[in-house]
Write a structure and sequence with these properties.
The protein is α+β, with helices and mostly antiparallel strands. Helices cover about 25% and strands about 25% of the residues. The strands form 12 sheets. Strands 1-2-9-10-11-12-19-16-15-14 form a 10-stranded antiparallel β-sheet, covered by helices on one side. Strands 6, 7, 8, 13, 17 and 18 form a 6-stranded antiparallel β-sheet that branches. The protein starts with 10 loop residues before the first strand and ends with a strand. The structure holds beta-D-glucopyranose.
Length: about 800
């Protein structure tokens, strides 16, 4: 307990169940989970707040949510249980009736929330069955008392009128468009189905309802909140039929439970599309055939349970592709469960929908998606393949690309446009990782369009060549890559000079004409991914191209050594005028993390010891108790020539926040330098299981996943996390742990084993499945070395080197450091 008597922790990990168990509903921020694996997704908080959508959180939003509301986290799927004079919700909100017991278990694509009040227990299991466009809510209510209980139950959810943006804006239209149909125990939401929409949603329950509501005002009361819906307080459904305004869906039940008796209800929130000629079965009467079939698949407890078992098995299988056993449960639970899970969620969502991203603002990022996919290739390679093709299709013929695209249309987003000059490199990064995992060189021959224009198709390999060239052909006065709008740090806007508060720094006119702005981060990234490109060219027999590329890379190395080294670290950039950024000469922003990470990963200037010096400088100037800070000293005032970065107060976001995404670059560079102890120290500072042990109250956001940003030491709130879930940190933490610390990295024809460990690590075992093979890898480190494999036995036979050639079947690998 701290001074205000608030707990420092709000739950605990249950590793055997692969769950995080929240035991206090008043978490310092809503702690959420994601449901859905294919096309239908839901966000769900620990008090059942959140919303659902089909494929696109902007254009196909099923249920309404109030962002940044008062109170926080308003809107969701609520069950009101009336027991005599008491009304309560299993997830505590929205009534906030004090519960006798509360527990929320967030698991792999499911959440179970259980509440108990006056000897009635209600447990709701939320999940999306595999391959189904619906969220199931299995509600089990049990009478734990010695007496018969008479209970009333109201379900509640509020429809969003599909387009989540206009739903919040265009009231002159949408207060008149809302339409529903009620049939049996199902409430159908059919707004705009009469015209251009071919889809409707429904909310059903597998028992004959005894009342319902579909009009919000009649159910809640115009001046009431969700915590005091009039119909519930009066135990009296209105049987209302919505016409315009705000349609909702609520079912009503009035029933008895004998002592010890339990009753289950299976609620289903579903989405249906119909062909144009099959939309209606009568005048304005929607065709319910598909909805009824969906309901029939889950209309008993047994069927719902079977679907849940299938989901659990699905996750057993996914996670079995990489499992580690060490003597450190905090590491194991992250590597085996939560890190992989977060990678899957970032694959599904990119940066679109979380409690920090509204689902209406952003599409899929070109660079983000390429990095994210490296975190899940080993889980779902086929989807990674499709993702690569989709991303590459938004590239322009000159190798540049749309910065973002919309998932529903897969088209590039014109509002944001192009010009982020790091973007193309990431396509090489994603594609080569995919081929190494799968051996699918065939993907390189796929015909992929530019800007989605039919007729413009070239092979994916050609797209990679243009990606490489886009950097090589756009060099500045020092022979370093021109930065364009920005590189990975899209708040370092060196060509923007925006003084108009009404425009975005990132997408306003980009004044690159005559600019000398160059990026050392892109330089490092180019060398690193360029070498991946060279290796790939050699593999596919393009040796001339490999040689040409190698020359470009060599020139870049030289340019960095000559113009990019500041004495003890790599510079960050040159600005529009050719002035240094991230130099000891500057008053503020003397050193930045990104160029240290990438140039040290690329081992630029290794002969002069530059990588090691740079990493030492990171430790000296950027490391703090909560991780590695992006830049130091923080900018204390705004610089028009730097753009958004200096718009942030010191310690937050790109101005000296701990931007977790880039910490792994330094950690990986440490492992490449063989410094296992340092790598481990940086790694565990931002590893969620370590953070949660330190203090969940301070950290604020979910303790089971990484967040994008933790406030740095200049902030008013050092250590406080923000922007949880959807961050490239997930994939990078995965790459760090799997490839570089545990040291098991897929190559084109062999698995490379090259651990880099803290001295105290003595032994661990990894099971790795790929390419129809299973490798049981036992690593022994009897002398407490940080790096360096001395011997490997493959199926009992010593091999030379540290590469295990791929071969189908099961293999025992014994590694000694
Ligand atoms: C964006 C990334 C960007 C990072 C750093 C994130 O919000 O999604 O594309 O690299 O911020 O600015």
């Amino acid at each position: 307990m701290n001074q205000e008597n608030q707990p420092l922790k709000f739950g605990h990990f249950d590793d055997a169940a692969r769950e995080y168990v929240i035991t206090n509903p008043q978490t310092p921020w809503p702690w959420i989970n994601y449901l859905g694996n294919d096309d239908f997704f839901s966000l769900i908080s620990n008090t059942a707040g959140g919303y659902s959508f089909y494929k696109d959180a902007k254009f196909r939003r099923l249920t309404r949510y109030r962002y940044n509301g008062v109170p926080m986290d308003n809107g969701g799927r609520y069950f009101y249980i009336c027991d005599g004079d008491t009304t309560w919700n299993p997830g505590w909100k929205p009534m906030k009736t004090p519960l006798d017991a509360y527990e929320c278990r967030h698991g792999m694509s499911y959440t179970r929330i259980t509440g108990r009040k006056n000897d009635v227990e209600a447990s709701v299991l939320f999940f999306v069955p595999l391959g189904e466009n619906a969220e199931l809510q299995k509600l089990s209510i049990k009478n734990l008392s010695q007496e018969t209980k008479r209970l009333q139950l109201f379900s509640f959810t509020e429809w969003c009128l599909w387009n989540a943006a206009t739903d919040m804006e265009n009231f002159q239209r949408n207060f008149s468009t809302g339409e529903v149909e009620i049939e049996g125990s199902t409430i159908y939401h059919k707004t705009e189905y009469r015209e251009r929409r071919n889809h409707y949603a429904f909310y059903s329950v597998n028992a004959p309802m005894q009342g319902f509501d579909t009009d919000r005002e009649q159910f809640v009361g115009l001046y009431n909140g969700f915590h005091e819906p009039q119909a519930v307080l009066e135990r009296q459904p209105r049987n209302s039929v919505a016409h315009g305004w705000s349609p909702i869906a609520s079912h009503y039940f009035d029933f008895e439970l004998q002592p010890g008796e339990q009753r289950d209800f299976i609620f289903m929130l579903g989405y249906v599309e119909n062909d144009d000629d099959k939309k209606f079965v009568g005048p304005q009467v929607i065709n319910k055939e598909k909805a009824l079939q969906m309901m029939a698949r889950y209309d008993t407890t047994a069927k719902a349970d079977a679907a849940f078992d299938a989901l659990r098995k699905h996750w057993d299988e996914l996670l079995s592709n990489f499992q580690v056993e060490t003597d450190n449960p905090k590491l194991d639970r992250m590597v085996n469960i939560w890190n992989q899970y977060q990678c899957m969620v970032t694959f599904n969502m990119s940066r679109s929908a979380s409690f920090f991203e509204s689902g209406i603002g952003r599409g899929m990022g070109f660079r983000d998606s390429n990095q994210d996919l490296v975190g899940f290739i080993h889980l779902i390679p086929a989807k990674a393949r499709q993702r690569i093709i989709d991303i590459a299709s938004t590239q322009f013929p000159d190798g540049s690309c749309y910065h973002q695209y919309q998932p529903l249309t897969r088209r590039g987003n014109n509002d944001i446009g192009s010009g982020f000059n790091d973007d193309p490199c990431w396509l090489i990064f994603g594609t080569t990782a995919y081929i190494k995992e799968t051996g699918d060189f065939g993907i390189l021959d796929e015909q992929v369009p530019f800007d989605n224009q039919p007729g413009s198709e070239e092979t994916l390999m050609e797209h990679l060549r243009r990606s490489f060239n886009h950097v090589a052909d756009n060099l500045g006065p020092h022979g370093l890559p021109l930065i364009g709008r920005a590189d990975w740090n899209d708040c370092l806007n060196l060509n923007c000079f925006s003084t108009n508060p009404d425009e975005s720094y990132q997408t306003t006119e980009n004044k690159t004409e005559g600019s000398k702005a160059e990026s050392l981060m892109i330089a490092g990234l180019f060398v690193f991914t360029g070498e991946q490109y060279v290796e790939l060219c050699q593999r596919v027999g393009q040796n001339g191209e490999a040689q040409r590329a190698e020359q470009c890379i060599q020139q870049m190395r030289e340019a960095v050594e000559k113009h990019g080294w500041d004495g003890s670290w790599y510079l960050r950039a040159y600005d529009f005028f050719g002035n240094k950024i991230g130099s000891n000469e500057n008053d503020e922003g003397k050193i930045f993390i990104e160029s240290q990470g990438w140039c040290a990963m690329a081992r630029i200037g290794a002969e002069q010891g530059m990588p090691e010096k740079s990493l030492d400088s990171v430790k000296q100037h950027l490391e703090c108790e909560h991780g590695i800070i992006l830049n130091q000293p923080a900018y204390t005032h705004w610089h028009v020539e730097m753009g958004e970065i200096s718009s942030y107060p010191p310690g937050y976001k790109e101005n000296a926040g701990i931007f977790c995404h880039n910490n792994p670059w330094v950690i990986i560079a440490e492992t490449l330098a063989g410094r296992g102890q340092d790598a481990w120290q940086h790694y565990t500072k931002i590893l969620p299981s370590y953070v949660e042990e330190r203090n969940s109250l301070l950290h604020k956001v979910e303790p089971y996943v990484n967040c994008q940003m933790v406030a740095g030491s200049d902030a008013a709130t050092p250590g406080q996390g923000k922007n949880s879930w959807l961050t490239g940190t997930a994939a990078w933490m995965w790459i760090t742990a799997a490839w570089h610390i545990l040291g098991i990295q897929p190559g084109y024809d062999a698995l490379t084993i090259d651990p880099c460990l803290p001295k105290e690590a003595r032994t661990y075992r990894v099971t790795r499945r790929l390419r129809n093979a299973v490798y049981h890898i036992q690593v022994n480190n009897p002398n407490g070395k940080e790096k360096g494999v001395s011997q490997i036995l493959l199926d009992g036979q010593p091999i030379s080197g540290n590469k295990i050639p791929y071969a189908e079947g099961e293999h025992e690998v014994e590694v000694t450091l």
